[in-house]
Amino acid sequence: MAHSTILSPDYTLRQAKLRDIWLIIFLIFKARLDPTQMNWQQFLVIEYHGSLVAFGQLRNYYLAQEIGGLYVSPNFRNQGLGTFLIKNLVIQGNQPLYLKCLKKELVNFYAKRSFTVVTYEDLPKSLKSKFFLSQLRKKIFNGFVVYMKYKEI
Fold it and tell me: Which residues pair with 9 in a beta bridge?
């Protein structure tokens, strides 16, 4: 199933429902993902036999959108679920699409899915203000931060 554009019948892709938000919040904090703009209507989730196993969010900003909070449960990784979520979030996008990477190993993952590295200076103003603290952490503490933009094929 790796890198497939369809899910097996065991999985269901759907818009998040209000009942999902507490589990999503818990997993976002557990995985140390960005907890800002937690709007449950912006999440897509994947269920496996009725249990939530993956999710991702499309956040809206002025003249830009961001993929955030992308999470796949450890037992379900390397099966194409993250790729499937990204493809569906990209389809929903209607503005230039960005993301912030805080783990080196994820840069290559996103690069293989048509995201290219951009500088902080290249970000739209709305995202510069959102990512300001990450940029400060990068400059002052040499923290790892990479900004990426979706490049249509």
Answer: none
3-state SS assignment for residue 110: helix
Return the CATH number of 11-150, one of 2.120.10.30, 3.40.50.720, 3.90.1170.50, 3.40.630.30. Answer: 3.40.630.30
pTM of the model as a whole: 0.89
More confident residue, 103 or 53: 53
Pairing of strands 146-150, 97-101: antiparallel
Tens digits of per-residue pLDDT, 93-117?
999 999 999 899 999 999 999 999 9
Q: What values do phi and psi take at 141, rounded to 5? A: -105, 5
Torsion of CA 44, 71, 24, 31, to 10 degrees: -160
Domain boundaries, the chain: 11-150
Q: Which residues pair with 97 in a beta bridge?
A: 65
**53 and 47 Cβ atoms separated by less than 8 Å:** yes
- Tokens matching residue 58: 């499309």
Pair 120, 136: CB distance under 8 Å: no
